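Help wanted!
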Amino acid sequence: MSQYTTRQNKLQQKLKDNQLDGFLVTQNVDIFYLTGSMQTGYLFIPVKGEAVFYVRRSVQRAQEESSCIVKALGSFRNFGETLKTDFPQVFESKHEPILATEFDVLPIQIFNRIQSIMPHVKWNDGSVFIREIRMIKSPDEISKIKIAANAVNQALETALGKLKVGISEVEWMSEIEYSLRLQGHVGLMRMRGFNQELVTGMVAAGISAAKPTYFDGPAGGEGLSPASPQGSGKNIIEKNVPILVDLGCCIDGYVIDQTRTVVIGELSEELVNAYQTSEQILKSTETLLKPGTICEDLYFNAVRLAEEAKLHEHFMGYGADQVKFLGHGIGLEIDEYPVLAKGFKYELQPGMVIAVEPKFTFPESGVVGIEDTYLITEDGFEKLSITRDGVIRIREN
Amino acid sequence: MSQYTTRQNKLQQKLKDNQLDGFLVTQNVDIFYLTGSMQTGYLFIPVKGEAVFYVRRSVQRAQEESSCIVKALGSFRNFGETLKTDFPQVFESKHEPILATEFDVLPIQIFNRIQSIMPHVKWNDGSVFIREIRMIKSPDEISKIKIAANAVNQALETALGKLKVGISEVEWMSEIEYSLRLQGHVGLMRMRGFNQELVTGMVAAGISAAKPTYFDGPAGGEGLSPASPQGSGKNIIEKNVPILVDLGCCIDGYVIDQTRTVVIGELSEELVNAYQTSEQILKSTETLLKPGTICEDLYFNAVRLAEEAKLHEHFMGYGADQVKFLGHGIGLEIDEYPVLAKGFKYELQPGMVIAVEPKFTFPESGVVGIEDTYLITEDGFEKLSITRDGVIRIREN
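Answered by r_m:
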C-alpha cells in the first residue's frame, strides 16, 4: 500500500468517526500530501471506497506523478453530476450527504461555486482532520526534513565566511539564499495562515530584529519597506550587535526551521544572559519532549522559566507584540500542528516534528535566542537541526 | 489628499453605486493598497465618512506606516460591537447593513467568524471593486514598476555572462535570483489566485519548458520535484535548445513580468519561425494598445495571427494544457486585472499596466516567445520592459 493510500485511509477513518460521507480536498499542499501530485483540481475521498483526483491542470502530469485514479475535471458546471455518477453510494443515499472541506484555506468564492453545483450537500469544516493526520510524519517525510536541515546548516556555515561589518542584512541573506537555492530550495516556504508569507526566514541585526511586525512569530524584522514589512532589510550590520539568523528552506516540499544568534565581536552581558536563558529553556523543553507530554505544558514551562529569569517581559516578543507560543509543527508547511501554546491539548506522539524557539526581544538592542527542530520518538526525541549551538562569534574583520 | 485617501474614495463611490453600506477589507495586499501598511487586521471603509484600520499586529507599525486612523483590534469577539460604536450610521440604520468583503481570497473559516460577530449583516462579494480600482496605476505605482523592470533587465544581462552548456536551470536561475535579491526583490511575487505561487518566474530549457503544469501560464517547467512542479528544475542546459527566461521580481511591492528566449548556439528553423511569429503578435498587439480597445479583442487578434501562421496548436501551451489568454494586468500582484482573454470586456484605459506574452510550445523541443509589460497612456502605450528583444544568442563556450 502506498503512503498516499495510508494517508487517505486515515482520513476515511476520521470521516467515519465524525459521520461524514466524504471529503473534497481543495488545497495544493493537502492534495500533494494525499496524492503525491500538486496539480490543480479536487480530490474526492468518500468515507468508503477509492478516491478520485479530478484534475484541471495538468491531467498528464497528475497521471505521471500520482498513483491515484486521475480523471480530467472537465467543465466545473458538470462536476456535481460527475461526482453523483462516480460516487452513487455517497450522493444517492437516503440522507443528504454531509461532506467536509478545508474551511481554513478555501476562499469563499470557490466554496460558493462548489455549493452551487452540489445544492443538496451539507458542508463541515474538515481542516482539523487533515492537520491532525499531517502532524505525524512518516520515515520518508522525516528523511526529507533532515535533508532540509543539512542544507540550512551548510548555507549558514558557508555564509558565515562572508559576514562582515558594513554588509546589509539583505546582502548577507542573499548569500544564504543563493546557497539554499543551489541545494534545491523551492524558493519559498509554504504557510497555511491567511496573509502570512515566508521566503527563507530572516537575518536581522540589532534593533531591526526587535521591530514588531504582522508576522506570526516572536521576532519581527524591519523588512525592505512597508510593502514587505518583515525579515531582512537594508539595515547595515555593525559590530557587537546580536544578529538573529532564523532560517529555513523547502526541499522536495519539506521545510526546516532553526535560529542561531550571531555576533561580530561581543554581546552585552544582558544579551548573553538572555541568550543563555533561551538555551536553558531549550534544554528544559528537551527533558519534556517525549510521548505523552501535553503541548501547552511546554509553553507554560517556558513561560515559568522566563519569569524565574525575570525576562518574561522580553519573552517571545516585547510588550503588545509578544506572541503566545513556544514552537510549532513543521512539515510541508511552516505553521503545522501541533502548536506549543495554551489551548493545545494534544499529547506529543512519535512522528511529530516541532520547532522550539525560545527568544528574547530587547527593543533597544535586538533579539537573541535559539531554535531547533525535533522529531518525537518512542522514548524521547531526535534533534533534526545539526547546527552547532551557542552564540556564534565572528572576529571583527 | 494622500493617494490612499483617493483610493478609499474610489471604493466608496463603488459602494454607493452598488447600494452597499461599507467594505471590510481583509487581505494583506488590499490593505496595503488602501492604507500604505501591510500589518494584519481589518480596514473598515463606510460608504460615507472616514475609514478605520483595526490592527491586530503590529499597531505601532501600522501607526508609523499609515496615515489612516489606526486602532488596536483587541478582542475579535468584541469587534462587532466596536464597529457598531464607531460607525452608528452604518450599523444602526433602518435596514440591515449590507457590507462587502473579498470573497475571492478570504477563507471560509475567517468569514464564518466575522459573520458570527456581526449577525445582522448581509455580505456581498466586493473583490471586483478593489480589482477594478487597482487596474489603474498612479504615477507612483508606475515608477515602482519601472524600478522592477530595470532590476530584471540588470539581473538578466549579468546572468547571461554565467550561462554555459552544462549548467542546470536552477543553478542559472540562482544567479538571476541572487542579483534580483541584491537589488531589493522581496523574495517572491504575490499572486491572488488560490493555490498559485511564484518566486521569480522560470528558466527552463528545451522540453522541460514544454512540460505542462498546474501553473496558470502558457509555459510549464519541470520544476524541482512533484512538490514544486513548475519553473526551473535540475535539467541541464544544452546547446541549440530554446531557453525560456520568464522573469519577474517584486520591489517595494510592485512586480514586473517579462520573457526572453535565449539559446547557446542556434535554434531550429521551426523555432525561429515560431519566435518571429511571437514578435509579430507582440507588434500587432502594440498597434491596438490604446484607450478604447476591448481586452478580449487583443486575445482574439493574437489567436487569429497564430492561426494564420498555422501555429495555433502550439499557441500559449499545447493541446489540453493550452491557456486561453494573451496577457494580464500586473501591479502589487502578478495576476491583476484586466486579463486579455475571452469574456474580459474592459476597455483599455490610461494607467493600466499589462504584460503581453505570446508564446509557442513544442512538446518535442521547447517553448519560445516574448513578453513585455506595457503602460496604457492617453494616446497609446509606453513599454516598461527595457530588455533588448530578439532571440538572445550566446556563443557556445
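OP: Thanks! One thing I noticed: Chain B touches chain A through 67 residues (CB under 8 Å).
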